[in-house]
Amino acid sequence: MCSAGNNWKDSLLSIASYRIHTSAFFKTALPKTGVVRSASRQLVFAPTSVMGLGYDDFYMLQLAEHTFLLLDHGNAQTITGQIIRNLAEGTLVENGLSGDIFDMPHSAISWTTHTWLKNTLIGFEDSAMSISHTLPQLTLWKDNDVFIIERFMKAKRFSHSQMIILNEVRMYLNVSTLSDITTSDWTRFLTWALHVEPTDSCSSQRYKWPAAATPSRKHKELWRSALRMAFARQIVNRIDRPLVTDVWLSKTHTVFI
Questions:
Q1: Which of 53, 123, 131, 155 fits 63 for a cystine, CB–CB 3.0-4.6 Å?
Q2: What is the pTM of this model?
Q3: Which pLDDT score is estimated for 243?
Q4: 3-class secondary structure for 140-191?
């Protein structure tokens, strides 16, 4: 078990770091072996048994190791299995997006923490791989509900640093959907959501949320501005369009505020 943990730490290499390292290595190593530095990487990484150069593609070795860990421990009642499931659920909550965690565009999700699991999921995305699993997905609480961070992302109005800030505020409030922060008749944002004062919501009681620092005044202002930009036509508390009300999609919910 300890060995597995060390392997995760030692092989925590992003694809961007991998490309930097391999580029520098092959610029030096290939000419020393009499091979032009621009040689096809398929030739470089092919085994010698088929006339390749036999270099190890250590990014793919890392991805294979992580895949085996997921397959061996993903559903197992082991310490490693519990760590994997907790990390996956935490990644889902931090992503704030709909859908299967293995089908999300992780390379485009710039606002989440860098972890070995995120590296693995980016590798899966790059290799068109997926794994069947029983991990839950984030819940939409009512018909026509939407995920807040997903709407911010689709708006394409916020920079990388702004998306990080907006997600940090969302995590501080423990919310994930529009219904978490609006009145039950969908006509107004809740005062606590605009003032960034955490209180109970469906999502706050459904998931385990990590501790988050209190946002600064500027971060709160960005949050309010982003809500109005993403969900409203005018700078008032009203949302942009009426939504279907009183149709719960999940039987597990708290009193709607």
A1: 123
A2: 0.70
A3: 40
A4: CCECCCCEHHHHHHHHCCCCHHHHHHHHHHHHHHCCCEHHHCECCCCCEECH
